[in-house]
Fold this sequence. Notes:
Elements: E1 4-10, H1 18-22, E2 28-34, E3 37-42, E4 45-51, H2 57-67, E5 71-76, H3 87-107, E6 112-116, H4 123-135, E7 140-144, E8 146-147, E9 150-151, H5 158-167, E10 170-174, H6 189-208, H7 211-214, E11 220-222, H8 229-242, H9 244-247, E12 263-265, H10 271-281, E13 286-287, H11 303-307, H12 312-327
Amino acid sequence: MLKVDIHTHIIPEHIPDYASKFGYGGFISLDHHKPCCAKMMIDGKFFREIQDNAWDPEARAKECDHHHIDVQVLSTIPVMFSYWAKSNDALDVSRFLNDHIAGIVEKYPKRFIGLGTIPMQSPELAIRELERCMKMGLKGIQIGSHVNDWNLNDPNLFPVFEAAEKLGAAIFVHPWEMMGTEKMTKYWLPWLVGMPAETSLAICSMIFGGVFERLPKLRVAFAHGGGSFPATIGRIEHGFNVRPDLVAVDNKENPRKYLKQFYLDSLVHDPAMLDYLIKLMGADRIALGTDYPFPLGELQPGKLIESMPYDPATKERLLSGSALEWLALSKNDFIRS
Protein backbone atom coordinates (compact mmCIF):
# COMPACT_ATOMS: atom_id res chain seq x y z
CA MET A 1 0.00 0.00 0.00
CA LEU A 2 1.11 3.55 -0.72
CA LYS A 3 2.01 5.40 2.50
CA VAL A 4 1.80 9.19 2.66
CA ASP A 5 2.92 10.89 5.89
CA ILE A 6 1.24 14.31 6.14
CA HIS A 7 3.10 15.48 9.26
CA THR A 8 6.87 15.84 8.88
CA HIS A 9 9.09 18.82 9.54
CA ILE A 10 12.17 20.12 7.77
CA ILE A 11 14.56 23.05 8.10
CA PRO A 12 17.34 24.34 5.82
CA GLU A 13 20.82 23.19 6.80
CA HIS A 14 22.03 26.78 6.91
CA ILE A 15 19.89 29.70 8.06
CA PRO A 16 20.74 33.39 7.54
CA ASP A 17 21.69 35.45 10.59
CA TYR A 18 18.31 37.12 10.82
CA ALA A 19 19.07 38.84 14.12
CA SER A 20 21.90 40.76 12.46
CA LYS A 21 19.93 41.29 9.25
CA PHE A 22 16.81 42.67 10.94
CA GLY A 23 18.37 44.24 14.01
CA TYR A 24 16.50 42.32 16.72
CA GLY A 25 16.42 38.82 18.18
CA GLY A 26 14.05 35.92 18.61
CA PHE A 27 15.04 34.05 15.45
CA ILE A 28 16.35 30.51 15.23
CA SER A 29 19.98 29.89 14.30
CA LEU A 30 21.79 26.58 13.86
CA ASP A 31 25.04 25.63 15.55
CA HIS A 32 26.55 22.71 13.62
CA HIS A 33 28.69 21.67 16.55
CA LYS A 34 29.48 18.19 15.25
CA PRO A 35 28.92 16.17 12.04
CA CYS A 36 25.31 15.33 11.17
CA CYS A 37 24.05 17.20 14.21
CA ALA A 38 23.11 20.78 15.07
CA LYS A 39 21.79 22.78 17.99
CA MET A 40 18.80 25.00 17.35
CA MET A 41 19.50 28.24 19.20
CA ILE A 42 17.39 31.31 20.01
CA ASP A 43 19.42 34.39 20.93
CA GLY A 44 22.29 32.20 22.06
CA LYS A 45 20.09 29.92 24.19
CA PHE A 46 19.71 26.23 23.43
CA PHE A 47 16.27 25.21 22.12
CA ARG A 48 16.61 21.73 20.62
CA GLU A 49 19.18 19.41 19.10
CA ILE A 50 18.44 17.98 15.68
CA GLN A 51 20.08 15.42 13.41
CA ASP A 52 20.79 15.62 9.70
CA ASN A 53 17.44 13.98 8.92
CA ALA A 54 15.92 17.35 9.87
CA TRP A 55 17.53 19.01 6.83
CA ASP A 56 19.02 16.40 4.47
CA PRO A 57 16.50 14.95 1.98
CA GLU A 58 18.83 12.03 1.25
CA ALA A 59 18.95 11.08 4.94
CA ARG A 60 15.17 11.35 5.09
CA ALA A 61 14.74 9.21 1.99
CA LYS A 62 16.88 6.44 3.49
CA GLU A 63 14.78 6.43 6.65
CA CYS A 64 11.59 6.50 4.57
CA ASP A 65 12.79 3.42 2.73
CA HIS A 66 13.62 1.72 6.04
CA HIS A 67 10.11 2.38 7.37
CA HIS A 68 8.40 1.80 3.98
CA ILE A 69 7.07 5.37 3.79
CA ASP A 70 6.59 6.32 0.15
CA VAL A 71 5.86 10.06 0.44
CA GLN A 72 6.45 12.72 3.08
CA VAL A 73 4.62 16.03 3.25
CA LEU A 74 7.24 18.61 4.26
CA SER A 75 6.47 21.60 6.45
CA THR A 76 8.68 23.88 8.47
CA ILE A 77 9.34 23.43 12.19
CA PRO A 78 6.65 25.57 13.84
CA VAL A 79 9.15 27.63 15.83
CA MET A 80 10.10 29.09 12.43
CA PHE A 81 6.66 30.70 11.90
CA SER A 82 7.96 34.05 13.20
CA TYR A 83 4.47 35.51 13.66
CA TRP A 84 5.87 37.74 16.40
CA ALA A 85 8.32 39.42 13.99
CA LYS A 86 7.79 42.52 11.87
CA SER A 87 5.61 41.58 8.92
CA ASN A 88 8.09 42.18 6.13
CA ASP A 89 10.81 40.37 8.07
CA ALA A 90 8.50 37.37 8.58
CA LEU A 91 7.78 37.44 4.85
CA ASP A 92 11.52 37.31 4.18
CA VAL A 93 11.87 34.28 6.46
CA SER A 94 8.83 32.61 4.87
CA ARG A 95 10.16 33.08 1.35
CA PHE A 96 13.51 31.55 2.32
CA LEU A 97 11.87 28.52 3.92
CA ASN A 98 9.39 28.06 1.07
CA ASP A 99 12.07 28.27 -1.60
CA HIS A 100 13.99 25.58 0.28
CA ILE A 101 11.02 23.19 0.42
CA ALA A 102 10.04 23.90 -3.19
CA GLY A 103 13.58 23.06 -4.28
CA ILE A 104 13.47 19.70 -2.53
CA VAL A 105 10.08 18.86 -4.02
CA GLU A 106 11.29 19.79 -7.48
CA LYS A 107 14.31 17.50 -7.10
CA TYR A 108 12.38 14.59 -5.55
CA PRO A 109 8.81 14.92 -6.89
CA LYS A 110 7.83 11.31 -6.17
CA ARG A 111 9.12 11.36 -2.59
CA PHE A 112 8.15 14.75 -1.15
CA ILE A 113 5.17 17.12 -1.18
CA GLY A 114 5.60 20.65 0.13
CA LEU A 115 3.59 22.97 2.37
CA GLY A 116 4.65 26.59 2.75
CA THR A 117 4.62 28.97 5.67
CA ILE A 118 3.21 32.49 5.44
CA PRO A 119 3.36 35.65 7.59
CA MET A 120 -0.09 35.32 9.12
CA GLN A 121 0.34 38.49 11.22
CA SER A 122 -0.09 40.40 7.94
CA PRO A 123 -3.00 38.82 6.04
CA GLU A 124 -2.22 40.85 2.91
CA LEU A 125 1.38 39.60 2.79
CA ALA A 126 0.23 36.13 3.80
CA ILE A 127 -2.11 35.89 0.82
CA ARG A 128 0.60 37.14 -1.50
CA GLU A 129 3.02 34.46 -0.28
CA LEU A 130 0.30 31.79 -0.38
CA GLU A 131 -0.26 32.60 -4.04
CA ARG A 132 3.49 32.32 -4.68
CA CYS A 133 3.63 28.99 -2.85
CA MET A 134 0.94 27.54 -5.08
CA LYS A 135 2.66 28.83 -8.22
CA MET A 136 5.89 27.13 -7.08
CA GLY A 137 4.17 23.75 -6.85
CA LEU A 138 3.57 23.59 -3.12
CA LYS A 139 0.20 22.07 -2.24
CA GLY A 140 -0.77 24.36 0.60
CA ILE A 141 0.45 25.87 3.84
CA GLN A 142 1.10 25.03 7.46
CA ILE A 143 -0.17 27.56 10.00
CA GLY A 144 -0.13 27.88 13.77
CA SER A 145 -2.99 27.22 16.16
CA HIS A 146 -3.25 30.96 16.75
CA VAL A 147 -1.53 34.10 15.46
CA ASN A 148 -0.28 36.19 18.35
CA ASP A 149 -3.49 37.57 19.95
CA TRP A 150 -5.71 36.30 17.13
CA ASN A 151 -7.42 32.93 17.38
CA LEU A 152 -8.30 31.34 14.04
CA ASN A 153 -11.81 32.77 14.13
CA ASP A 154 -10.47 36.33 14.05
CA PRO A 155 -11.98 38.34 11.17
CA ASN A 156 -8.49 39.51 10.20
CA LEU A 157 -7.60 35.95 9.22
CA PHE A 158 -10.73 35.07 7.25
CA PRO A 159 -9.39 36.51 3.94
CA VAL A 160 -6.44 34.10 4.20
CA PHE A 161 -8.77 31.12 4.55
CA GLU A 162 -10.94 32.48 1.76
CA ALA A 163 -7.89 32.74 -0.51
CA ALA A 164 -6.83 29.20 0.40
CA GLU A 165 -10.23 27.83 -0.58
CA LYS A 166 -10.16 29.75 -3.86
CA LEU A 167 -6.64 28.56 -4.68
CA GLY A 168 -7.34 24.96 -3.67
CA ALA A 169 -4.62 25.08 -1.04
CA ALA A 170 -4.56 22.50 1.75
CA ILE A 171 -4.02 23.86 5.27
CA PHE A 172 -2.21 21.99 8.04
CA VAL A 173 -2.77 23.47 11.51
CA HIS A 174 0.00 22.81 14.04
CA PRO A 175 0.09 23.94 17.69
CA TRP A 176 2.72 26.47 18.68
CA GLU A 177 3.41 29.05 21.43
CA MET A 178 1.36 26.97 23.83
CA MET A 179 -1.06 28.62 26.21
CA GLY A 180 -0.31 28.56 29.94
CA THR A 181 3.41 27.86 29.62
CA GLU A 182 4.11 30.04 32.66
CA LYS A 183 2.28 27.39 34.72
CA MET A 184 3.97 24.46 32.99
CA THR A 185 7.66 24.88 33.73
CA LYS A 186 8.30 21.20 34.57
CA TYR A 187 7.76 17.77 33.11
CA TRP A 188 7.69 18.95 29.45
CA LEU A 189 4.07 19.94 30.12
CA PRO A 190 3.81 22.53 27.32
CA TRP A 191 4.27 19.67 24.85
CA LEU A 192 2.19 17.12 26.77
CA VAL A 193 -0.69 19.34 27.95
CA GLY A 194 -0.41 22.65 26.09
CA MET A 195 -0.14 21.24 22.58
CA PRO A 196 -3.35 19.15 22.74
CA ALA A 197 -5.20 22.13 24.19
CA GLU A 198 -3.87 24.44 21.46
CA THR A 199 -5.17 22.14 18.74
CA SER A 200 -8.61 22.01 20.35
CA LEU A 201 -8.53 25.82 20.58
CA ALA A 202 -7.86 25.99 16.85
CA ILE A 203 -10.63 23.56 15.91
CA CYS A 204 -13.20 25.17 18.19
CA SER A 205 -12.26 28.65 16.96
CA MET A 206 -12.79 27.65 13.34
CA ILE A 207 -16.07 25.86 14.11
CA PHE A 208 -17.65 28.47 16.37
CA GLY A 209 -16.24 31.34 14.32
CA GLY A 210 -18.09 30.03 11.28
CA VAL A 211 -15.00 29.44 9.12
CA PHE A 212 -16.09 25.94 8.07
CA GLU A 213 -19.69 27.09 7.64
CA ARG A 214 -18.72 29.93 5.31
CA LEU A 215 -15.99 28.02 3.44
CA PRO A 216 -17.30 24.46 2.98
CA LYS A 217 -14.65 23.57 0.39
CA LEU A 218 -11.72 24.59 2.58
CA ARG A 219 -9.44 21.58 3.17
CA VAL A 220 -7.94 21.68 6.66
CA ALA A 221 -6.05 19.03 8.63
CA PHE A 222 -5.10 19.30 12.30
CA ALA A 223 -2.02 17.78 13.93
CA HIS A 224 -1.76 15.25 16.76
CA GLY A 225 -5.10 13.59 16.16
CA GLY A 226 -6.92 16.83 16.86
CA GLY A 227 -5.32 17.19 20.28
CA SER A 228 -7.87 17.21 23.09
CA PHE A 229 -10.79 18.07 20.80
CA PRO A 230 -12.03 14.54 19.96
CA ALA A 231 -12.07 13.46 23.61
CA THR A 232 -14.04 16.55 24.62
CA ILE A 233 -16.50 16.87 21.73
CA GLY A 234 -19.30 15.73 24.05
CA ARG A 235 -18.54 18.55 26.47
CA ILE A 236 -18.18 21.02 23.60
CA GLU A 237 -21.53 20.02 22.12
CA HIS A 238 -23.20 20.09 25.53
CA GLY A 239 -21.90 23.61 26.11
CA PHE A 240 -23.31 24.62 22.73
CA ASN A 241 -26.69 23.20 23.69
CA VAL A 242 -27.03 24.56 27.22
CA ARG A 243 -25.37 27.97 26.82
CA PRO A 244 -25.94 29.07 23.24
CA ASP A 245 -25.84 32.64 24.52
CA LEU A 246 -22.12 32.14 25.17
CA VAL A 247 -21.14 29.51 22.61
CA ALA A 248 -23.36 29.98 19.54
CA VAL A 249 -22.81 33.72 19.19
CA ASP A 250 -21.22 33.56 15.72
CA ASN A 251 -22.43 30.21 14.39
CA LYS A 252 -25.79 28.64 15.22
CA GLU A 253 -24.88 25.17 13.88
CA ASN A 254 -24.10 22.23 16.16
CA PRO A 255 -20.33 21.62 16.26
CA ARG A 256 -20.79 17.95 15.36
CA LYS A 257 -21.96 19.08 11.94
CA TYR A 258 -18.34 19.79 10.99
CA LEU A 259 -16.74 16.47 11.97
CA LYS A 260 -16.80 15.47 8.30
CA GLN A 261 -15.42 18.79 7.12
CA PHE A 262 -11.83 18.56 8.32
CA TYR A 263 -9.07 15.98 8.71
CA LEU A 264 -6.90 14.81 11.60
CA ASP A 265 -3.56 13.08 11.47
CA SER A 266 -3.19 9.68 13.15
CA LEU A 267 -0.58 10.70 15.73
CA VAL A 268 -2.30 9.55 18.94
CA HIS A 269 0.11 6.83 20.19
CA ASP A 270 -2.80 4.70 21.39
CA PRO A 271 -4.78 1.97 19.59
CA ALA A 272 -7.98 2.73 21.51
CA MET A 273 -7.75 6.42 20.64
CA LEU A 274 -7.15 5.73 16.95
CA ASP A 275 -10.15 3.40 16.96
CA TYR A 276 -12.22 6.11 18.64
CA LEU A 277 -11.21 8.71 16.04
CA ILE A 278 -12.30 6.42 13.24
CA LYS A 279 -15.63 5.74 14.94
CA LEU A 280 -16.12 9.45 15.61
CA MET A 281 -15.10 10.87 12.23
CA GLY A 282 -14.55 7.98 9.82
CA ALA A 283 -11.39 6.63 8.27
CA ASP A 284 -11.89 9.07 5.41
CA ARG A 285 -11.06 11.91 7.82
CA ILE A 286 -7.88 10.40 9.33
CA ALA A 287 -4.48 10.46 7.61
CA LEU A 288 -1.12 9.03 8.57
CA GLY A 289 0.98 11.63 10.38
CA THR A 290 4.13 11.01 12.42
CA ASP A 291 5.79 14.32 13.42
CA TYR A 292 9.01 13.01 11.88
CA PRO A 293 11.84 13.44 12.83
CA PHE A 294 11.07 14.37 16.44
CA PRO A 295 10.96 12.03 19.47
CA LEU A 296 7.37 12.90 20.42
CA GLY A 297 6.30 11.58 17.03
CA GLU A 298 5.68 8.01 15.93
CA LEU A 299 9.12 6.44 16.04
CA GLN A 300 8.15 3.62 13.68
CA PRO A 301 6.07 5.50 11.09
CA GLY A 302 2.84 3.74 10.20
CA LYS A 303 3.19 1.05 12.88
CA LEU A 304 0.04 1.98 14.80
CA ILE A 305 -2.22 1.89 11.73
CA GLU A 306 -0.66 -1.33 10.47
CA SER A 307 -1.09 -2.98 13.89
CA MET A 308 -4.85 -2.39 13.92
CA PRO A 309 -7.30 -5.14 12.88
CA TYR A 310 -8.81 -3.10 10.07
CA ASP A 311 -9.69 -4.39 6.64
CA PRO A 312 -7.31 -3.56 3.77
CA ALA A 313 -9.55 -0.82 2.36
CA THR A 314 -9.63 1.00 5.72
CA LYS A 315 -5.87 0.72 6.15
CA GLU A 316 -5.31 2.01 2.64
CA ARG A 317 -7.55 4.97 3.39
CA LEU A 318 -5.62 5.76 6.57
CA LEU A 319 -2.19 5.27 5.03
CA SER A 320 -2.74 7.30 1.87
CA GLY A 321 -6.31 7.83 0.72
CA SER A 322 -7.29 10.56 3.16
CA ALA A 323 -3.97 12.32 2.70
CA LEU A 324 -4.27 12.39 -1.08
CA GLU A 325 -7.85 13.67 -0.87
CA TRP A 326 -6.79 16.45 1.50
CA LEU A 327 -3.95 17.40 -0.84
CA ALA A 328 -6.14 17.09 -3.98
CA LEU A 329 -3.71 14.57 -5.44
CA SER A 330 -3.97 11.10 -6.95
CA LYS A 331 -2.18 7.87 -6.21
CA ASN A 332 -1.02 7.92 -9.83
CA ASP A 333 1.03 11.04 -9.06
CA PHE A 334 3.43 8.86 -7.06
CA ILE A 335 3.81 5.76 -9.17
CA ARG A 336 7.54 5.39 -9.74
CA SER A 337 8.86 4.11 -13.02
